[in-house]
Amino acid sequence: MNIVKLNNGVEMPQLGFGVWQVPDAEATPAVSEAIKAGYRSIDTAAIYGNESGVGAALGMVDRDELFITTKLWNADQGYDPTLRAFDESMNKLGLDVLDLYLIHWPTPARELYVDTWKAFVELQKEGRVRAIGVSNFQPAHLRRLIDETGVVPAVNQVELHPYLQQSELRAFHAEHGVQTEAWSPLGQGGELLSDPVVTEIAARHHRSAAQIVLRWHLQLGNVVIPKSVTSARIRENIAVFDFELSEDELAALSTLDRGGRIGPNPDEFNQA
Ligand code: NAD
């Protein structure tokens, strides 16, 4: 497993296991399966409704071998609500210290993300979370957090796959020391995995299309959190550390960028 070092020195596995849309009861067997397959990083969120199910699977290995991420939901933004929501998440997960806490969406029209970030900074100072970051933040939102608090997020988790490559955001991250983390790294398993550019490279390496896309992310330096509840795919998605794409193959995959956003536009998503 590759490890990335975040801007405060905390180490994070470059590949983890996402559990969006996994019901609470199914999260325990899915996360257990992932841990057995070698995953050590798990990505959940309060809004996924499966923090208890995730937590129930975490006793299989020593706590310090695991890297657990959860996210603050939009309705809980603001200084005091954030502190309360954090406690609730930690109770459900059954953890004393979290590895990474993310603001799930900026919801910019609600004007609460700076106060929320101040609560995150406090939680980190208290030692309750090892690293703090954001999700779905655009450059303007990141700039505002940095200008108003002086604390640079360790991670920004955003929609990113070959159809939506986020070049401007990735350049901002590189300049400021923010780790890029890709959600829906496989484009949610849609058209991308049958794109001829991807399948042709896959055939050449005797690998699956999903493995080629994950390898592209890893060689770009992205953290990835592919999701699956199917044992064979859970294992397949982590078996990507024993081959490499060539410069030409990376370049061919990079031509697929087409602004293909699947999820909401973060500038316009203000749901509480
Ligand atoms: P993904 O790109 O990981 O795709 C998952 C889907 O692809 C699966 O449901 C399955 O249908 C298919 N798939 C998985 N492995 C495959 C394989 N080897 N071969 C063929 N098909 C395969 O999409 P995702 O679940 O949306 O994203 C991954 C994780 O990112 C989520 O589980 C969640 O943890 C996180 N996420 C975060 C946000 C956010 O706002 N921060 C939003 C969406 C997702």
Identify the notable features of this structure and list them briefly.
272 residues, alpha/beta, TIM Barrel, 8-stranded parallel sheet, two-stranded antiparallel sheet, 10 helices, 39% helix, 15% strand, binds nicotinamide-adenine-dinucleotide
Task: Please describe what this structure looks like.
Helix 7 crosses helix 8. The chain contains ten helices and ten strands. The longest helix has 15 residues, at 79-93. The protein is an alpha/beta fold and 272 residues long. The protein has an eight-stranded parallel β-sheet with strand order 3-4-5-6-7-8-9-10. It has a two-stranded antiparallel sheet with strand order 1-2. The model has no long low-confidence stretch (mean pLDDT 98). The protein has a single domain (3-190, 222-244), classed as TIM Barrel, CATH 3.20.20. Helix 6 (167-176) links the parallel strand 8 and strand 9. It has helices at 24-37, 51-55, 79-93, 113-125, 139-149, 167-176, 196-205, 209-220, 231-238, 247-254, and strands spanning 3-5, 11-13, 17-18, 41-43, 67-72, 98-103, 129-135, 155-159, 179-183, 223-224. The structure holds nicotinamide-adenine-dinucleotide (NAD). The site of nicotinamide-adenine-dinucleotide has 26 residues, from helix 9.
